[in-house]
Amino acid sequence: MEISGLYEIYKSCGYRVTTDSRAVAGGELFIALKGENFDGNAYASKALELGAARAVVSAGSDAAASGDPRIIVVEDTFVALRDLARWHREHFLVDGKPLKVIGLTGTNGKTTTKELVREVLSRRYAVTATEGNLNNDIGVPLSLLKIRPGTQLAVIEMGASHPDDIGKLTDVCEPDYGIITNVGKAHLLGFGSLEGVKKAKGMLYDWLAAHGGKAFVNVDDENLSRMAAQRNGMETRGYGIELWHGIVLPSDQSHPYVRFAVPMNAGLVPEEGLSEDLLACETRLVGSYNVNNALAAVAVGLEFGVPIDEALDAISRYEPRNNRSQMVRTGSNVLIVDAYNANPTSMSAALDNFEMSSASSKLALLGMMGELGEDSLAEHAALVRRLVSEGFPSILVGDEFRNAIDKVGGKALEIKWFPDSASLAGYLAENPVKDTLVLVKGSRSQAMEKVIPVL
Question: What is the reported pTM?
Answer without folding.
Answer: 0.85
